[in-house]
Amino acid sequence: MQNIIQQYEGQIIDPKTQQKLNQPLADDTGFNEGHEDFLKMLIKKLESGEINPYDIKTLHNKAVYEKLSDDAKEETDLTALNLMGIIRQIENLWKIEHKATFQIQNLVETVFHMKSKFEQKHGDVYII
Fold first, then answer.
1. What was the pLDDT predicted at 28?
2. CA 43 → CA 65, 72, 92, distances in Å?
3. Which of 1, 48, 52, 122 shows its CA 20 to 30 Å from the CA of 77?
4. Pick from 32, 46, 47: nearest CA to 113
């Protein structure tokens, strides 16, 4: 059986098809409630330097973080590492468009969901 990738290797996509694939979904409804404000706050903290997307400690709410057990601190750091990867993507896209594209909306939704779910268990450990 031929490998599926090899089967289509060298195929050229019709430009009209590629253009259609690059368009956002027709039912794109924009931000969920509160997420636009969340994006504005996040961008403000990134631009002011309050959050450094390459330093997870800048994401910590230090007063809450210091009270955590060692295991909870480790979980917080790992989640912060994942959050920072997404935040870097948001920052890079924002620098290009300076508006909430559908990619940014999706990434903001992901950050908001990850942060909210984690903080339900460990408290307000992040400054976002």
1. 56
2. 23, 27, 11
3. 48
4. 32
User: Dihedral (C-alpha) 79, 81, 86, 87: value to the nearest 10 degrees?
Assistant: 110
Report the chain's mean pLDDT, rounded to a whole number. 90
Decide: 101 and 93 in contact? Cβ < 8 Å: yes
pLDDT in tens, 60-86: 999 999 999 999 999 999 999 999 999
Structure confidence at residue 34 as a pLDDT band (50, 70, 90)? confident
From the list 43, 46, 32, 25, the residue with the least C-alpha distance to 109 is 32
Q: What Cα–Cα distance (Å) separates residue 13 from each residue in 5, 19, 20?
A: 14, 10, 11
DSSP three-state, residue 60: strand
How many other CB atoms sit within 10 Å of the CB of residue 64? 16
3-state SS record for 62-108: HHHHCCCCHHHHHHHHHHHHHHHHHHHHHHHHHHHHCCCCHHHHHHH
